[in-house]
Predict the structure.
Amino acid sequence: MRKKRWRSKRWDELSPGKKVLAMALTSVQVSLAVSAWTDLALRPAREINGRKGVWAAIIGINFVGPLLYFRRGRRRPWRLPRPFAGRR
């Protein structure tokens, strides 16, 4: 007996509800990635945990990458090393 192979459905085979869900999830994923890449590009390297190039690659991983960057990739303001001001 042959096993039936699973194949993904084509766009025109999806129900209208599933099309809306797919477009909404795609929109959220792209928005997260673009906002994470923008933040990474504008943030100074000293405020990033690790190398920027590595984080840029990680952000490209579906939903997980941008969320991981926002949670672990950025240093918190209260944890940044303070510049030495000296005595006045």
